[in-house]
Design a protein that fits this description.
The protein is of the alpha/beta class. It has helices at about 20-30, 35-45, 60-75, 100-110, 115-125, 130-140, 150-170; strands at about 10, 35, 45-50, 55-60, 75-80, 95-100, 145-150. Strands 2-5-1-6-7 form a 5-stranded parallel β-sheet, with helices on both faces. Strands 3-4 form a two-stranded antiparallel sheet. The chain binds adenosine-5'-diphosphate.
């Protein structure tokens, strides 16, 4: 049983579904720490170079886990990343998989000027529910939650729900006052 006094949450999903926006709002409202894996990979060089076709870093997962282990084990992290199967089960208390309508996602990724191959791969991944599958295969089903993130109203509702979950987690673990 983990001894952390604040839970760790993964916010995952296909690029463009709203992970960073949700994490920033949540961090502001709850005081939990937004751990942007993208930023860690870049800043702490947890990669094996740059993939030109996909315009992204080739992540070295072992290096990444080493880089964040100490911080995550202390608890209170909101992990923002478009994969989730690499994090040990014992680190994680809640996995939120954000979903977005394909047309909306297309617009968001086009606005980022993603190369065609990357855009198509991400749309396929959303349609095939790749991240939802990955989350369900990697964690106990009762800690995996799928939430829609197409509209601003949905985002507000999601943040409220996660905040309520956090309150409950703290009450259950007897750390509500801390
Ligand atoms: P990710 O971190 O998953 O790549 P972002 O948080 O960067 O996604 O969001 C991509 C874009 O979509 C941003 O411009 C953001 O404001 C917008 N967005 C994300 N979620 C929503 C939502 N639920 N409603 C409206 N706009 C959203």
């Amino acid at each position: 049983m983990a001894t952390r006094t604040s839970p760790n949450i993964i916010i995952t999903g296909t690029p463009g579904v709203g992970k960073t926006t949700h994490c920033e709002l949540l961090a502001e409202r709850t005081g939990l720490k937004h751990l942007s894996v993208n930023q860690v990979v870049k800043d702490r060089e947890c990669h094996e170079g740059w993939d030109d076709e996909f315009q992204s870093w080739i992540v070295d997962e072992d290096k990444l886990l080493d880089a964040i282990e100490e911080e995550v084990k202390e608890g209170g992290c909101i992990i923002d990343w478009h994969a989730c199967d690499l994090f040990p089960k014992s680190w994680i208390d809640l996995v939120v998989v954000l979903r977005a309508d394909t047309t909306t996602l297309y617009d968001r990724l086009s606005a980022r000027k993603y190369p065609e191959a990357k855009l198509q791969e991400n749309l396929d991944s959303e349609i095939m529910e790749v991240l939802l599958e990955e989350a369900r295969e990697s964690y106990d089903e009762e800690i995996v939650v799928e939430l829609q993130s197409t509209t601003a109203d949905e985002m507000d509702t999601n943040v409220d729900r996660i905040e309520a979950w956090l309150k409950q987690w703290k009450a259950d673990s007897g750390t509500a006052a801390s």
